[in-house]
Amino acid sequence: MSSEPSIFFSDTNERQGSFLRRTFVIGAITAVGGVALTGRLAQLQVVQAGEYATLATNNQFNFRLVPPPRGRILDRNGVVIAGNRPSFRVLVVRDETKDLDQTLDLLGRLLPDTVDRRRSIIRDVNAAPRFSPVPVKSDLTWEEFARVNLYANELPGVMADMNEARFYPFGGSFAHVIGYVAKPNDRDIKAIEDAGEKVPEILYNPGFRIGRQGVEKAFDRDLRGEAGGNRVEVDARGRVVAEDVGGSKPPVPGKDVVLTLDADVQNRALEVFGEESGGCVVMDVRNGDILCMVSAPSFDPNLFVGGVPSSIYRALADYERLPLLDKAIYGTFPPGSTFKMTTALALLDAGIDPKERVVCTGGYRFGARTFRCWKAGGHGAMDMHSAIKNSCDTYFYHLCNRAGIDRIARVAEDLGFGQAYEIGIAGQSSGTVPSTRWKRAYTEATSWDDDGTWYPGETLSVAIGQGALSVNALQLAVMTSRIAHGRKAVQPRLVKAVGGEARPQAPAFADLPFSDQHLDIVRAGMAAVANDVTGTAYRTSQLGLGDIQMAGKTGTAQSRDYKAGESRGPRNAQWSRRDHALFVAFAPHDAPRYAIALIVQHAPSGGSVDAAPKAREIMKTVLLKDPDMRARIERPLPPEAVAPVGVDEGDAGSGPGGEVVGPAAAAVAPPPPPAPRPAPAATSGPRPYLSEPPR
């Protein structure tokens, strides 16, 4: 028989006291904890309630930046030359994808061309801020857009939407002057930080673009606008569940920029260049407005908006005709015979009689060297008018040292050479105008093996636009505009207005330091170049627009040094070894309104054959767009202005230097030249044929 286990207490009072102590300690601890918990809850719910309510709201809502529509760029007539267009795109949000690699694999089946860019896509996605959508592909076709939306439920973190993309409707016509847009890079961010400025948060947005080169870069802050944002509600994992329309901020579009360029003239200029390389600038003589500034060959800036493939970029960069280089304001060339008007003004300033004759026998002996004229048989007796008309090198060889290199350099600077212009965009080359001071500085800077002395033989090369002399197309256009205007140092202008506010023009043009009589002599020579049957550009300079005629000057400039006895032909040999062809002109020659400068790099023939015809076609477009010129063209010609029967424009031919040689037209009377303008009573008085430029 078993018995129940029993517990025996030896001391009832001792046992009861121990139990009460433990109960008291545990109860005290529990009470303290309760008080602390109650106090903490009171602090959270009463004292810090507002603070934590704000944090909870911030965790519930996110503010996602929205890039603003970029401002447009317009020509002088309101034609859009850089705008925005709708674009379908597909985006990926890294934090909403379960597996980025798997997501990209699925996308690759829908959009096969994303496979080749997979590495760059992953790099962009990983570099983007959290929950920020990253464009994977833009410019989707409607079929691609529909396909992505059809499978959107099976692609977590993938969305398709429509945004605005930069668009250049005229392709390469404005590529160099306008530039293009591209994604900001590390260099852009560092440049802002180095300037001590705060980096705008929008620059980290993968869909944002900034200006590169030209007007897009120079006016980027105006064109950029102000970023907006969408206030969206997110869940605990950061996924968007709704949009708070009331808390969103619409973006502010960028400002429009209006240029002085004319889209029709710009397009025509690029068209006439064809496959040739070079630059062209057209200016309004009266106020300096640039109507055309084109560089050829060009490139399509639309390729750069979404990121140009490296293969295409390398093809553009490696092409010997350098389509990425702006040859209108950055590329410099020797001006050749287009510089002879500058030398002529320096000779007149030195007191040389324009009627003084120099006999050209085909060259000029100076020291131990013979400087050849472009016409091997020589031009015979030449005064200044004939020397400009026939582009006689010997005349300028013979007289240039009587003016001296420093006087020639001073006149060149007065006409606009050797300087950059404030036209709103950077990247201009100032070129080189040699002088005694320039040579000393150049010798010291380069440690050239020379004592820095300027030798008279060097002046001969500069006098005909060769030697160390280098200019760009914009400078040639400024020179031509100033000669055409006659009184004022015309300054070029490219930007008319920004954001609807007119850009202030330059201060009143300074006076030119040349007398009217001297300028008349030079202009008469230029008129003979284009309108005398024996002029170097007669056959290729006839506009066929009523009584409107150009005054111009051809030029054929060496691109390299020739060895003694080496021929400068054939012209269609290796491209990089050809000479450059140039032509400058203004029209109408009796009431100047427009000036043009055109350079053909490594031309097949020369100034009269390659450059003048192109300039003529561009000038015709300019004149036909001017209502005043059209009215003049359409009015009947007076009987005395009709050319006599028997004149054959085909009698002139191309000479070995690219200049035009004509037979002695003794039996054929040339068209009567325009009546000479009466000389004003004082050299500082108003010109009778040109109104003051509008200010």
From TrEMBL:
Pfam families: PBP_dimer, Transpeptidase. Residues 66-243 form the Penicillin-binding protein dimerisation domain. GO terms for biological process: cell wall organization; peptidoglycan biosynthetic process; proteolysis; regulation of cell shape. This is Penicillin-binding protein 2. NCBIfam families: pbp2_mrdA. PANTHER family: PEPTIDOGLYCAN D,D-TRANSPEPTIDASE, PEPTIDOGLYCAN D,D-TRANSPEPTIDASE MRDA. It is found in: Cell membrane; Membrane. Transmembrane segments: none annotated. Residues 560-569 have a biased composition (Basic and acidic residues). Residues 669-679 have a biased composition (Pro residues). GO terms for molecular function: penicillin binding; peptidoglycan L,D-transpeptidase activity; serine-type D-Ala-D-Ala carboxypeptidase activity. Gene3D superfamilies: DD-peptidase/beta-lactamase superfamily, Penicillin-binding protein 2a (Domain 2). Residues 278-620 form the Penicillin-binding protein transpeptidase domain. Residues 554-574, 635-695 are annotated as: Disordered. The keyword Transcription does not apply.
